[in-house]
């Protein structure tokens, strides 16, 4: 059994890319911000409680939607990258599609009130990714390969989008589907009330740990499971996430928690991961003020970088669209307008504003032609959050 799990873990390592919450091949350096920096002409409205306000369709949103729909989307969904590959690498690349992208697209459609787009995206996601044990994290059209693993973070995001769609659009069918897929998720990705990163359908096994940015507390609380199991699951995951806090001096979070050893581990601290952990805590009103103050300071200075040592020393000077998109969501979630607005401004520094570029309206590196699904979909979600 250990050999089987080790084999599955080797597959997981291949899918993680830069971070465990961003399962794509990631460029070694992010693009330089464009020289033309634009601010939103009208920021999206935000309802702190239910995300059910009508979202203003800014020019930024319109241009980004157009780029994603016309340039970054094909028959099977949103491309992992604008530039095609042979789709044979360990990490997803080229015009492969990810359940991550589908779930982000679904959530953005709900938050912006696009009922038809949501239905279209959900139907496509089921068609492409649905397996007996969960949603495959990855499909390669060229290889005609559906990978037999799910990713808990993406399954939970899909379930979350379904619950929100049921409420937003007044359609109980979505709520019923959320309940159904939530029960399946619990059956395969939870053991002894512990959440695991993935379930490998081929080997009928999970890994031995949970990546902290996979712990979506708000969605776990919504799962349609018996109350006694729900309470223990959410309480245990809450403790694991909160206890992963590093320090007041560097108020980010550990990478993973191993159930066999009872210990946390982090080689280095990836900013996207810690920000998603902070966002998950903010969604249940448990964010730490030290984390928010730290983020605000670095967003204001424009120096929130991609990776740090455990002591808080920057290990690179890479800034990215996704980083500022997530801080914008955190600001919106906690009702901090200054953090929200400044993060959107920082994020917009990476918008492609050259109308002659094939990447116009999106977020990417004009020089190399690289434009990643994660950056663009996180930016779209930040606009409509």
UniProtKB/TrEMBL annotation:
<dbReference type="Pfam" id="PF01270">
    <property type="entry name" value="Glyco_hydro_8"/>
</dbReference>
<keyword id="KW-0378">Hydrolase</keyword>
<feature type="compositionally biased region" description="Low complexity">
    <location>
        <begin position="25"/>
        <end position="41"/>
    </location>
</feature>
<feature type="region of interest" description="Disordered">
    <location>
        <begin position="25"/>
        <end position="52"/>
    </location>
</feature>
<keyword id="KW-0732">Signal</keyword>
<dbReference type="InterPro" id="IPR008928">
    <property type="entry name" value="6-hairpin_glycosidase_sf"/>
</dbReference>
<comment type="similarity">
    <text>Belongs to the glycosyl hydrolase 8 (cellulase D) family.</text>
</comment>
<dbReference type="InterPro" id="IPR012341">
    <property type="entry name" value="6hp_glycosidase-like_sf"/>
</dbReference>
<dbReference type="InterPro" id="IPR002037">
    <property type="entry name" value="Glyco_hydro_8"/>
</dbReference>
<feature type="signal peptide">
    <location>
        <begin position="1"/>
        <end position="20"/>
    </location>
</feature>
<protein>
    <recommendedName>
        <fullName>Glycosyl hydrolase family 8</fullName>
    </recommendedName>
</protein>
<keyword id="KW-0326">Glycosidase</keyword>
